[in-house]
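[Amino acid chain]
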Amino acid sequence: MTMERILSRDMYEGSKRGVVLAIECLKGSSKADEWNGNMLQTGDIVEELKIGGLLCVRSPFKNGKHGVQKLLHTSFKKNETSIQVRVRRGRNEFVELQACIVPNEAAGRKHYMLRSIDDPNYAVGFADRTEGDCLAFQGSRNSRVVCALSKAQLQDGYVSYPWERKMRLLTVPNSSCFLSILLLPKASDRIASRYNDVEDTLARANAWLNAAQAFGVPIELMNVQTESLLTKISGETASATVNAGSFSDLSNLANVSLYGFEDYHGVDIGVVRAVRLWYAPIGGEFPLEIDLKEGDSKLGFAISRTPEGFIYISSVIDDDNNDLASTRSGLRDLYREAMSASKLLVISRVSNQKVLPWMVSSTGAIRCFDTVSLSQKLSLHRHALRPISIHVFMWDCTLAFQDEGIEKFKASTPTAMPPTSEVQLPLRPSNESQVLPLPEALLPRSGSESPVWNHDEPELMTDRDTAGEVSFRFHNFSLSSNWV
């Protein structure tokens, strides 16, 4: 007598009359198809178990669920975990499942469940039920689906993310391409106790953007938002602001730049509503690497600053006979392209540090970077023979990537250009004072040697700039004597 017939006879002799081995779903499918006809469902009657390639056990099963668990335990210990389950649904419908035997830790020691081969998230177990109960379960499938739907909830979780590696893949490693400027509301009195409304701040943001674009800065508007900043208020300002800022009058509160409230300690707190303007370069940011050589006496370009606080390349030496850093890097030819497009060649970063205007104070002054200190830093790069890494705003997203990118600017054929002393950028007001780098004569000397002044050069004149206490604007420099 074969082993298969012996097991079948033993199972039959020990079975309980009227009780069958039924399927019980333990874990749902990740494919959201546990209710279709191909997946086992709670209430399906187990007809046959095939473990490995030799053992086959058919219904009825000796000792029901307990006997099958012992059989699964024995097979698992022998590393025979492959199992095929055949179940009966209704009277004549049969479904099969290919699975593997795995421990069911939630049920306790020596308890096992079956995990689907096709969907590892789907697992089923066994239960002892009467055949009538199983048929009732199968008949109430639609109601069970509706019940499961009403109870189903989406679960949240966490996923690890390789931030350090992803941030190195940015256009500028570990630095964002999001650009913005924060405009504080303009104070309407000297002690800054009153501010103009939000509409005025929005109008000034609009004017700043329009003026920058008209000047040739290649940027476009991305978004505008209000930003709340906490401030201290006291005295008449506090009483007037707290009373006027009642949240019951939301229509008036929507356009105020300062509103206040009193916390439970009795402290008057003010909220100033600033405006943040988000913008982006039309063609993105383009990196330039300026390599330096021994014997470079100048970089070959000059920088200036727009009234809106942007630093740009204002002039470039156009001389094919001299091996200048600006020519080797392609900066000269990129500058020509900017002029022909009536755009400024705006510097956005130096050594990956943003050098863009970032705030407008309540007095209207624009916080931006100083051209003098930047010129000094560029000159020190030249003296130390350290490469200069800069990023510039592009006005055409295809320009920097056509004809092998920067090689286009390095290898372009020289064209006829006006004399250096006559070079002026388009859209630039004729009465605009040019901000130029610090002359060679102003660089610090070694030891106690004093700066050497060239009396043949025009006189150095300074004029206080509105952007800060240490920023100056230089006048009366001829272009031929003020290169970095």
Remarks:
- The longest strand covers residues 219-232.
